[in-house]
Amino acid sequence: MHQLLETVRKLAEDNPTAVYEAPDEDGCYYTLGPCGNGDGCIIGQALLKDDSTLKEKLTAIDAEPLGAEHLFDEYLDMTLTKREIRWLAKVQESQDDHECWQTAVDIADEEVGGV
């Protein structure tokens, strides 16, 4: 399992009832909007916990919001399997549907399978 997925799981475990609310109606932001113990959505917080040098890149990406699949396929140089990317995308999608973080992880596990 890639470290990023472990970090997402840890954030959900530490903040199980956190519900991300974007600062405006444009959707999820990787670095904006307080949630849990930081700013940004669960994927953004996990990325920054694993690699703080991504802050500038994620802030630029926030100007043109994209889903997790496009983020990993086109913008970030990370070695993730297609299944891991689908799992991350499902966590983000569930979070964007106002599910709490632990529920978002549980939904991804159920729909994509534990990774």
Describe the structure.
The protein has 115 residues and is mainly α. The protein has one domain (3-112). 56% of the residues lie in helices and 3% in strands. The chain contains six helices and two strands; from the N terminus they run H-E-E-H-H-H-H-H. The chain has helices spanning 3-14, 42-50, 55-62, 68-75, 82-96, 101-112, and strands spanning 34-35, 38-39. Strands 1-2 form a two-stranded antiparallel ribbon. A hairpin with a 2-residue loop joins strand 1 (34-35) and strand 2. Helix 1 packs across helix 2 (42-50), helix 1 packs across helix 6 and helix 5 (82-96) packs across helix 6 (101-112). The protein starts with a helix and ends with a helix.
Number of domains: 1
Task: Choose one word for the global shape.
Answer: globular
Order of helices and strands: HEEHHHHH
Terminus-to-terminus distance: 6 Å
The count of strands amounts to 2
Please give the share of residues in helix. 55-70%
Q: Output the radius of gyration.
A: 12 Å
Q: How many alpha or pi helices?
A: 6
- Overall pLDDT confidence: 87
For the largest beta-sheet, the strand count, sense and barrel status come to: 2 strands, antiparallel
Structural class: mainly alpha
Q: Major sheet: order of its strands?
A: 1-2
